[in-house]
Amino acid sequence: MPKKLPKKDVVIIGLGWTGSILAHELTDEGLDVIAIERGPWRDAPTEFPPNYAQDELRYRIRHELFLRPEQNTFTFRNKMNQTALPIRDWGSFMPPNGVGGGGVHWNAETFRFMPSDFVLKTHLTERYGAAFLPEDMTIQDFGVTYDELEQHYDAFEYLCGTSGTAGNLRGQIQEGGNPFEGPRSRPYPTPAQKQPFSHTLFAKAARELGYKPFPQPSGNLSQAYTNPLGLRMGPCTYCGFCEWFGCGNYSKASPQTTILPLLVRKSNFTARDNSEVLHINLDRSGKHATGVTFVDTGGVEWEQPADLVILSAYTLFNVQMLLNSKIGTPYDPVANKGVIGRNFTHQTISSVNGFFDNKKFNFNPFIASGAIGMCIDEFNGDNFDHGPHGFVGGGYMGQVQTNGRPIQSASVPPGTPKWGAVWKNATRDNYLSTVKPGTGVHGSFYSYRDVYLDLDPTYTDRFGRPLMRMTIDFHDNELKQNAFLTDKFAEIIRAMGAHTLDKQYRKGPYDATDYQTTHLNGGAIMGTDPSTSAINRYLQSWDVPNLFVMGASAFPQNAGYNPTGTVAALAFWAASAIRGQYLKNPGPLVHA
Amino acid sequence: MRSAAKISVIAIGAAAAWLGGVGLSGADPDSQAFDQIERGRYLTTVADCYACHTVPEAGKPFAGARPIETPFGVITSSNITPDNDTGIGAWTDEQFDSAVRKGVRPDGSRLYPAMPFTAYTKMSREDVMAIRAYLKTVEPVHQPVKSNTLPFPFNIRTAMRAWDGLYFTEGEFQPEGSQSAAWNRGAYLVQGPGHCTACHTPKTVLGGDKTTDNLRGFNLQGWFAPDITGDNNQGLGQWGEADITGYLKTGHNRMTAATGPMAEEVVNATSQYNDRDLSAIATYLKSLPQRQDNAAPLPANSPVMIAGQAIYRDQCSACHGIDGRGVAMLFPSLAQSALVHASDSTSAIHLVLRGGRSVATKQEPTAPGMPSFGWQLNDEQVAAVLTYIRNAWQTAAAPVSAETVGKARNQLRTRSD
Description:
Chain A is α/β, with parallel strands linked by helices. Chain A has helices at residues 17-28, 44-47, 56-61, 102-105, 115-118, 120-128, 146-160, 197-208, 255-258, 260-263, 315-324, 420-430, 476-496, 564-582; strands spanning 3-4, 8-13, 33-36, 74-77, 85-86, 168-169, 172-173, 214-215, 225-226, 232-233, 269-272, 276-282, 289-295, 301-311, 348-355, 374-376, 395-399, 434-435, 441-443, 452-460, 466-471, 500-504, 547-549. In chain B, helix 15 crosses helix 17 and helix 16 crosses helix 17.
């Protein structure tokens, strides 16, 4: 029997970005909140100080900040007729761990989705007809609109101090910004970061090709900033150690820099780290959560009762928690019924490396930040006519090179041997004169009937719970999209003056060992119909109304952007609904 | 239980007030009047009685038992709650006044000057009685404390009579007619209840104040409490009034941040001072004269400055900037920091070797921290980088030697704070 703790108003599972936002909002409401975090406490100056944060081997190669697969992992397969096997070393995505979650090690690219991304099914059907979409594509509308989320995007950007150039201010298109973005109510809180040489050169080439390049919105700040909570941030130093690393000098937006110092001062907030929630507890009706059961490092089980449960773990763990807690109907792809696990998606990433004459070009690639970059949005979402191309979706593309780190950034032209004197010479000759965007083409990943999550029938975790099983592969639509976008991207790199191009198209099958992004989405999606969504438009569980599920697990499909801005906007939107509606009258906020 | 305890507080308070009213001090204000208790609460905060007389996190305010580190050993603070047996509930007003302003206990023996009666003696009787009135209202805690835990010969309290003869000048603060009311208020707060001298005034080998060097800085508890006179280089000469009041109110200003023991003082006391008092303190401190013994700057091309600059650019400039000016309210401006240019570099060495955390306050909750470099830089390197930052930006201070760093490193090994 677990030991029972005194009841709290709210229990939060996972203290990353969304857990921190909800903890802040709900403690402001006067509620007594406890957050339970599986990983350790992480504090910027002690955990990743500037005097050793820049250690590529430790953080990038050996995954210092991430979950250890020994603690929990997933099984993976491409097709439903294959046997899934456990992932024993992280590859295509990096499960975060510890206080701050992915907010510690992200690049801080702080995009908004476009208005059409939220009504994707309706929009594409109206423009191209239902028959234009692949038969097994299961895209849906979010159930919430861009206009409803605008103030919440704004809240997150001002929390973070996001650096950028507005492209659409209250409907007026702005020079130098992204003309395709939805209207924003006010400019970014800080101006865009300065751009290194290769990024500037990309923008020039793109402009000459008729595109409208814009600086990538960045949570690495261009200047010192004080956020609405009174927390101070410093200017980014362009050290080039951002994604996979924590920022020790207070210049990357994270829960540590923007929320936690204030949160820990509140007498109605408590956090328990190194404690893993086993399941959400339900009463006999199965329609009401009574709290959670967690286990500490000593193996002791504790029951934490609460009136309201916020599930704010990483995408895959949200879905696993719901399935292990028997909340909602598990998705069955054969019968095409059930909701928990459906519409699982990732991202479709590719890039083009450009090699330049080293006598004419010196890019100093080590001068960079996580969200540095000049991008174009002409090929994102439905910003171009897909009719002639036979696919839907798209992505932004740009010179978004984040670093010149020695282990991973040493690029050599195609055909160079992979070792020996020739490789060494090629590395030396090309290091300063190569454009290596990394995630240069950042494409969407739409949802399909046979891409989903369920509980593995064979493998279990250390508590005997079934592991989460990923069944995921690229479909033709995404591969066509990627080929088209990668070619367009290569044209710009060529126009910059590259003598050699290395086009790295995304090809199937989906490879769990090749890093794309950590943007896993779906599995507990939001929507307007309980038969095809796990949570309603306020991220409230259809089945258990005193449970709200945060995070990208809510995305019915993934757009061609980084998800954090939208994840955070949805968290603020849900917090607003809880404060404004739910607490006054606890119960379902939407009656389907 | 809770309400019962409160009733007993009131009962004790009433009894003490009644006793006090009998013949002893008829002129003292009514200790049960709200304005007297509220004034006492404020003065108790100003005097920071809480800091020494409370064990943090124990949940028993003013119940004592906190170990106080002195150069002569550890003293344990007394219980000043109105508990009759173990606190000061049975004390008369006269006894309280004698303890606070004369260092004399009810039995006639002497207090050790860890209790800053040498400063409190400058307080007015009215202020002491107000503190007394407030302390009668806090929850009584039954907690016996063995206060004298000093080693021989310092455990002999009678020795304190001789000490008092040497270093203790009894007497209330006397305003200077030639100075403004604000200056006099500031002087009263700094010298009296604020007892800034306790840390910031150099001490003799016997722990008495070197009054000729009033507030020119003192090394204690592994830190150097800096010079807080108006000195341009080592003191607060470059600070405006808003810099001083902001620092005391929030723990931060455009040049520096409170850390070490001062962080606790900011949280418990100065952040709760009223604005007028903070402004008065600034007026007084700014008026204290320049010192005459400031060093000449080292030449930029000396080997130690070149080495120090290289280390600085690699290790320090990401936060503190190439120009040493940091980011206001976030990363201290080393070019302007009194801590950096102090005659005694103990605090700077402490921060480089061990890192530090600035204070979090309501107004400035960020509490930025500095990492430890003790594992990364050897004594010569720490000495070089400190020598560089002490002399780099139109500033001048004596070089720091590797031996000094080595000694500090050894001393820090034995400290857990």
